[in-house]
Structures are given as structure tokens and as C-alpha cells.
Amino acid sequence: MMRAAKVLSKMKLAKAGVSSERLAVPSWAQTVGKTIARHTRAVGIFEGTLVVDVEDAIWEKNLRLLQPQIMEKLTATLGPGKVRSIRFKIAIPKRAPQREDNLVSADEADSIQDPILRRIYIQSRKRATA
Q: Would residue 113 count as lying in a domain?
């Protein structure tokens, strides 16, 4: 079964308003495979240069070494001359959502075991802050 990008690249896409160069971004993951796709993301194609964000400098260095093989695969998938070069750049690391451990602030009155003394403490604190 032919990949969708290969089929679409052979179609007359100029009439449909989709350039074959734009197919390089969606076909990136299929072209390079799952392992590389997990650590990279194709951003866009500008003047024949495919811009790819990578996780860190190690991935950038390794992908530069693999660039000729990746270019061969892109040429086989999209057709000749669609992507002339690839630019790998280190992406700004995205921070994971931070979780606040103390969503409900612990009240120091909760540490008082006696319920009557706890109530007296809370009432006196309210009076002091009012």
C-alpha cells in the first residue's frame, strides 16, 4: 500500500490549492520512523528548506549525520526537488504542567487534637486578623 503522501504528491495538487512541499511536514513522522519522530517535530518548509525541531544537541548532531539518508527518503516520498535541504534546530523545551502539592493550604489548627481548643484557636485567630 502506498503512503498517502506519496499518492498525494503524484496527484495534480496545484489545482487543489495544496502544494506538494506542504506535504513534507505531515509526512515527516512516516518518513523518519517512530523513534526519530518521538524526538523531533517538523515545523514547516521555507524556500525548499524543511525546518525540524529536535529535543537536544545530541539529537541534532545525530540527525545531521543522517541527513543524506533522510533526504533520500523524503525524495522517494515527495518526489525530487520538493525539499532541497533540512535545517535541524534545538527546540525550546516545553515545561510540563506544574502541579501544586498544597492545593488546600494546611491549617495549623488541624494539628490541635481537642475539638474545643481547636474551635477556640480558630475564633481567636479570626478576631486577631479582623
A: no
Q: Give the residue from 2, 8, 18, 1 showing the smallest Cα distance to 79.
A: 8
Residue 49 belongs to a domain? yes
Q: Is residue 124 part of a domain?
A: no
Number of other CB atoms surrounding residue 4 within 10 Å? 13
d(CA 54, CA 50): 13
- Domain hosting 20: range is 4-90
H runs (alpha helix) in the chain:
4-10, 28-32, 34-39, 57-65, 67-78, 115-129
Tell me: the pLDDT tens digits for 68-100?
Answer: 999 999 888 888 888 899 999 998 877 777 776
Q: Kindly report the CATH number assigned to the domain that includes residue 9.
A: 3.30.300
Band (pLDDT 50/70/90 cuts) for residue 9 is low
Contacts of 109 (CB under 8 A, 6+ apart): 118, 121, 122, 125
**Euclidean distance between the first and the last CA atom of the chain, given in angstroms as a whole number:** 75
Report the number of distinct structural domains present in the chain.
Answer: 1
